[in-house]
Amino acid sequence: MNWRTGRREAATDLSKLWSWLRARLSTLVAWVLSAGATLVAFEICQNSIDATQAALPYTYYRWLGPAALAAVIVLAALLTRELLNRHSHDEEGEAQAFAHAVLAHARRLHRDHRHTALLRLRGDESLRLHVLGRHEERRELGDLALQSAGALNRDLDKAAILIDDLGWANYLLGDTQTALANMAKGTSIAENVRRTTRVGHPDYQDASILEARGIRHQAVIGAAGNNGPIDRWISDLDNAQKLLTNDDWQHENIIRQEIAQIHHSRAFATVSYLGVNRSGTISPTDTEGRSRAAGALESLRKAEKIFRKLSDDSRLPKVYLLRTRVLEALGDSIDAKASKALAEQSLRASPWAEPDGIQSILGPSKKQ
Hints:
0% strand, 368 residues, 14 helices, mainly alpha
């Protein structure tokens, strides 16, 4: 049975269209006010001059005086327009300005062959670009960083870039085929590092985390595309979690965070497979679908418990938003409203401040 019933979202496009229209409207208002004020001022000035005795030539007062006043008004209107546009930019363009600044610095580092600095920049800002919804900029940063990782022969950096910057970012941009190819390559690199590194070495843990992440992302995409039975992808997620089962990890909190991510991915994969990750409902007569949705809620409960213990404010909103969607799909309006309120509260306390970033929490809004 094909469970896909979701709708494509256009919130991001509408937001960008509104920003463009508002900028054009501010320009139009400034020019209309300028033209009206100029004509009125010109007429008033001429009438005043006509009613007085001029010491200088009449033509000077009659035309040059009003013209000078009109020029002042036009300049004032242009200044007003500039201030309006700058205010609009401050409100809506901060994320874009930040992303462009990161890319400008990355390009400069790439041009100067400062590979270590570029990889450090990518490590610091890649996740931030994801949270802000700047996936195109994240992908370009990944392209540049991958070249630096190759120059320095740093396999773990290659794996991370291929799985995240050139994997998940491409998926959110709608290029699923490229995303899966890059993720598979990155996961393979991480697996090779893990198999050739002794247990207890820091690289062994990092490689295990990256391998599990690559498997996790591919499972979510496979389930969302109905590429085989859902149980296959849940099994892959179980295998990913087994990679993180070790009593001798050096950074336990990081491992717990990744395990919580896998719990969330179980729910995300299931809900995407059912086709209700963004909209739609599950029929009361659909026993299998409702059973799987209940399992998704249990996975989200486990993820929430870990994220709360870790005080992970950046990932809790993902849990609450997805839980709200599951409850809505099940028709549980009361619990859905309570979950939605909690989601909104958690978003305000999280880095997910931009609409483009929030939109991506429930998966890509457009697919090619």
